[in-house]
Amino acid sequence: MFRLVFVLACIGLIGAEKRVNHNVLNDRVVGGNNAKPNTWKWQVSLQFDSYDENDFYHICGGSIVDSLFIMTAAHCILSMDESKYRVVVGEYDLSENEGSEQFARVEKIIVHPGWTGDLGNGNDIALLKLADSIYDNGFVAIAELPAPEQMLPHDFTCYITGWGLMDHYGSVPDILQVAPLKVVEHSVCSQPQWWGSLALKSMVCAGGDGVISGCQGDSGGPLSCYIDGAWRVHGVVSYGPAGRCNQETKPTVFTRVSYFMDWMYSVMENN
């Protein structure tokens, strides 16, 4: 899902327990390369059943943050009817049942209370409580998270993954895509020629070189960064430019996970 709001659009992303050799990648998710199988183990496919026919299709990404909880974007929540969703973990090729997947029903949807439906106001984050725990089958992992309020330095390289559009023609991948994105610090991203006042301190900007970006269908997925000795999910894909996803000075914008740690822990403890 990559939701458009005039000058805005929404997108998604990745993970791995050991540091991964990314030399096999080219430079983009839009028109990008296949991720290496069984590396980004906290990546989730959030799927939706529009007509209650048990016919689920991918709408957004997400991250495993607990054996019972998935983190995604608030704008990915199309309905508060839990039965319309399923979460797929251990997924790689959406067109194949490879035996690595676990399919989980959603028991409860918790959207951040500050979410207004306006991407520019931030708080684009939600947690999904699963009906049954995810188990370790060798193809899944719980994401490591940043320290509360931790900020990433300018030009720090992180990685985005997802099953979103690969180009502005609407090409959709079956296989998980991955690409590097460089962080654009808030003092730059909030300048008028970048995202201006739409870039809040509760967000992370990454990309904006006109080549690499997330796109529709990547929303809710992770921005994964190797820092402090581990891969950590620092962002949840939120928005990007309307029209062509990879535009100069319009980086992909993520909900900054470190800003919402207290809320997340409170939700998981009380649900």
In short:
With 271 residues, this protein is mainly beta.
- The N- and C-terminal alpha carbons lie at a distance of 27 Å
Percent range for helical residues? under 10%
CATH superfamily of the largest domain: Trypsin-like serine proteases
Strand order of the largest sheet: 9-10-11-14-13-12
Low-confidence stretches: 1-28
Structural class: mainly beta
Q: So, CATH architecture of the largest domain?
A: Beta Barrel
Largest sheet: 6 strands, antiparallel, barrel
Q: Output the CATH topology of the largest domain.
A: Thrombin, subunit H
Rounded to the nearest angstrom, the radius of gyration is 16 Å
What's the β-strand tally? 14
What general form does the structure show? globular
Query: Number of domains in the coordinates?
Result: 2
Number of helices: 2
Mean pLDDT: 89
What key phrases describe this protein's structure?
271 residues; mainly beta; Thrombin, subunit H; 2 domains; 6-stranded antiparallel barrel; 6-stranded antiparallel beta barrel; 2 helices; 14 strands; globular; disordered N terminus
